[in-house]
Amino acid sequence: MAAVRQLFRKQTVFCISLLLAIASSAVVLPDAEYLAYPDYRTLALLFSLMVIVAGFQSLGAFARLGRALLARAHGLRALSAVLVALCFFCSMVITNDVTLITFVPFTLLVFRMIGREARALRLVVLETIAANLGSMATPIGNPQNLYLYSSSGIAMGAFMRAVLPYAALALALLLAAIFLQKDEPIAPPAGMDAGTGGALFPAMLPYLALLALCLLVVFHVLPYLPVLVCVAVVVLAVNRRLYRSVDYFLLLTFLCFFVFIGNLKRIPEVSRLLTSLVAGHELWAGVLASQVISNVPAAILLAGFTENIPALLTAVNIGGLGSLIASLASLISFQFYSREYPAQKGAFLKSFTLWNAAFLATLLALACAIG
Q1: How far is Cα of residue 272 from the mean position of the Cα atoms in its chain?
Q2: How far is it, in rounded angstroms, from Cα 247 to Cα 146?
């Protein structure tokens, strides 16, 4: 029983999705149609991208990039701007959660080394917002984008119109928040001048090649199955330990939600009700649902009951702001910061909530204005 409680505490969203799948299966009994529920293409891409990014991480590629850039920052404001920009732009390729796993501990270490630990709290909050909103700018930046772009067949132009205005405004707001703060001269911490290293690029080549193949799948140039096999074989040959870095609970969460939503769509009364609630109200449905169940499950759930995918894309990405669970990637920042400074959990939550509310209100106003 203790093991079940621990699993629920650590993997709450997965456990809820599993319970929903089981409950719905009691109403719509399992049959051959269940095999058509999952979006296998999305699952294959998620697995492939997670293992490829783990490969880059294993080489220390992102930390080396950060050190190289920080070596050129000689003021607290410039240092903060570099770190926020790293989170914003790296999240477009390596996803928001991996970005925060990489750069939040890096930030806490750097600010401890320069003796500015009191200034780290707000910066970590801004880095979290940067990763969540920077990731919205590409189809592979976060799981909800990957799913909605891959499964809907939405055109790239429509995708860009749904996300780029908000990403651009978010970047402007983030930089304004950084440059309005007090600047202080600092000396670059020892070791921050480390370059990328001559041996790094050859080691990255297999992962760069696999990433290119995955992008061709994302843009519907290549079929997913041969690329999935290629990724599996190359990773097995290069570094089989990377398989341990895959978030299998995320893949299982997707699978459970596919079963739950597939079953709901086969219950006529429920399907009609949800369609009437979501269709035409995608913005508010996506934002509000994200606050409660986080934006990835919200995207999977609501996509089954609307054809306006661009509006839903905007909603679930903006919806990653707000509560701490609106984007599960935000929990990563909270866990890292509270582990280093357990007495400041309340201060982090207060700052996080205030900054997220401000960004959410501003982006919602833009969404309403655009219509």
Answers
A1: 31
A2: 15
Q: What is the pTM of this model?
A: 0.82
Residues 131, 46: Cα–Cα separation, whole Å = 18
Q: How far is residue 85's CA from residue 88's CA, in Å, rounded to a whole number?
A: 5
Task: Decide if 253 contacts 301 (C-beta within 8 A).
Answer: no
Q: CA nearest 10: which of 288, 253, 321, 299?
A: 253
- What ranges in the chain are assigned the alpha helix state H? 2-10, 12-27, 40-58, 61-70, 76-94, 96-113, 120-134, 143-152, 156-179, 200-218, 224-238, 248-265, 268-278, 282-293, 295-303, 309-318, 329-340, 345-370
* pLDDT per residue as tens, the chain (371 positions): 777 788 877 777 788 889 989 999 999 999 999 998 888 988 898 899 889 988 988 888 777 776 776 677 678 888 899 899 999 999 998 889 888 988 888 888 888 877 888 889 999 999 999 999 999 999 999 999 999 998 888 999 999 999 999 999 999 999 999 988 887 777 665 555 555 455 787 888 999 999 999 889 888 899 999 999 999 999 999 999 999 988 898 889 889 988 988 898 888 888 888 888 888 899 999 999 999 888 988 898 898 888 999 999 999 999 999 998 898 889 889 888 988 898 898 999 999 999 999 999 999 999 999 87
SS3 at position 185? strand
